[in-house]
Structures are given as structure tokens and as C-alpha cells.
Amino acid sequence: MVKNQQVETFLRIGAFVVLLLLVVGFVMPSVESLIVLEIDKNAADGNPVIINGTLYGSEYLAEAFNQSFFFQSRPSATDYNFSYSGVNNYTVDNANFTNQTEMYLQEFMSQNPGVNVTQIPYTIITFSGSGVDPDIPYSVALIELPRVAAALFTLMNDHTYEYYNSTLQNLVTQNEAQNFFYFGSLIDNVIQVDFSILQIIEQKYGSSFIA
């Protein structure tokens, strides 16, 4: 009799565990996904960047924009490879970390001549935690803006430098956000800004430029 009660108790516990796993592991995530899809389908799909029906990436994942008429993403430990994420686990006193940071600092200064080293935020010369963070400090976007405006003016050759400087200023301002409510710092999503620039270029040179 006692043995039967023990078996019955174990079966009830097992059934409860299976039910709990089903609810927590399947039902709740499915319901949440359906709710998010209804509320904001674009965000639920990863905020895809689509130009003329072609998918080019996601606003959540940084990419390499190496031309001078684009704003630069943060350095990536994964080389912007979306199949994995992470960083080298260096301590701040590690020689590799020091050399790596110095390299990115010199690279940023060479791309943006005239900038004072004290103006350069630490975040733009170091890896993000994921390696594909799409956000850069708003102050960095302002530092890069003259260089990007000058390069875009040369490429397009249809308006004045002041026109492109003003256009880019508006893009940077429109994409300005705070990364944490009230106490956060100002950031810009470099993917949003750069693909907006790409669309400006595409209007003149066609989709072949993107390819």
C-alpha cells in the first residue's frame, strides 16, 4: 500500500515537472512571440534592413563600413561574423589588449585628422561585449561627421559640402537615443545611419553600387 502511494506521488511529481516544462519552455515563449509579432513585427523579425526588396542586414547587428563616406562601427572581435559572438578575454594590463587598443586609437585618429585624443571615447576603440554592437557614442558620430560629409560631397559631386554636412547632422540627430533611461549616455545606431547614407548614394548611382 505504502509502495503504491510512493509510486503515485512520483508519477504526480513527474507529471507536474513535464507540465511545467511544457508551459515555461514552449507555451509562454510562443505566446510572447505572438504578442510581440502583433505589437511590433519589424522588431520581432530583427529590424531587417531592406532596400528595394533585398535584405542587407539587421539594425541590431554591426557591419563593416570601410569606405570614408560611412560612419565606422565599433571594432569587432568576431570580424562582424554573425555566426558567433564574444570578445577576447584580456585583462586591461594584458600587452595584447594594450597594443590592440593603441592600434584602434591610431586608426581612428588617422581617419579623423585634427581630433584631440581626449575627445575619443574609450568605447569606440575597444570591442563590445558581443562583437557586433551596432551603437556608437553620439559624440563619436559628431567627430566623424566632417570626414563623412567631405567624402560624401566628393563622391556625389552634386551639392555643396554644407548641404551634406547638414543632411548628415539631421541623420545623426534623428537616430540619437539614450542607451539607458535617464542615467544612460547618448548613442547612435551606426547601421541605421549608414544605410540611410547608402540609400542617398543608391538614388544617384543605382542598386549596383550596393552590390
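The record above closes out task 2.4. Task 2.5 opens with a second protein, given below.
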Amino acid sequence: MDFAIRLARSGDAPALADLIRELGMFAYLAAEPAQATGVRVAEHLSMCLADDSHLVCVAEDGDGVIAGYVAVHWLPYLILAGPEGYVSELFVRELARGQGLGARLLEAVEVEARRRGCTRLMLLNMRPRESYRRGFYAKRGWQERPEAANFLRDLEG
């Protein structure tokens, strides 16, 4: 099947919320009503579309079904010659995997990053994820930083 990569629109929020819930990767999503997920995705997508500091692209099939998406945020580090693009989300529906959609979404990000004069792109990939185990990012030239530690501070607990 042929897919088009395009910029996300506010009207994509319901489809994106369904896609995220369908992944079954996040226990907290299963515990909340689908309507709550939809409202949150619509609010967050609206923030991403409000200015040029974010980019959300979707992979859409010929019938208009969104099969995957990528979100990237442009971070102006003072210590770098150009901004860094932080890829915060890249997800493809299970039925659409293996068709090159993830690679095409990453390519769209890289094209935009180069256009913006970015110094580098960065993302986190959890080691238990199937994409990490099969080397999805490494096969595309991304390098794991062994010297870095990823820290989180939970503000909800």
C-alpha cells in the first residue's frame, strides 16, 4: 500500500488518539476513558501546531487512514552551532509495520532538520521496545550514546 507523509492537522487528533491507544504500550492509557485520551491529544497537537518550534507528520494511506506519525521539537541549545531536533514520538500501527513508514517519517524529520540548520537529531528508544531490539535506529545511522544517562523527574507523583 502506498502512504503519503504530510504535516499533521488539528482534525487528525481523533485518529492519532486511536492510534496511540491501539498500540497497547501505555498502561495509563488503558486505564483512562478513550474520550480523555482524545481531549489530551487534541490539546497537545494544538500546542504543537501553534508555532514553528514543533513538527508533527503523519503517514496516511490512500483511504485517509493514519498509519503512523512522528513528533519532533526544535531545541535551541546555546552550546550548539544550530538547534537540536528532539524526536519525542515515532509510532506506526502494528498492521502497517514493515512497510518502511518509520524510515520515511524519520527521513521527513531529517529533511526538515537540515532545512532549519540543525546540528543534530536526538531521540530516546527504550531498550525493551521491539524497535530497539531489532536495531531500527542503528540501521539508519543513529548512534547510541553510551556516556549518557537519561534521568526523569516525575511531577505527577
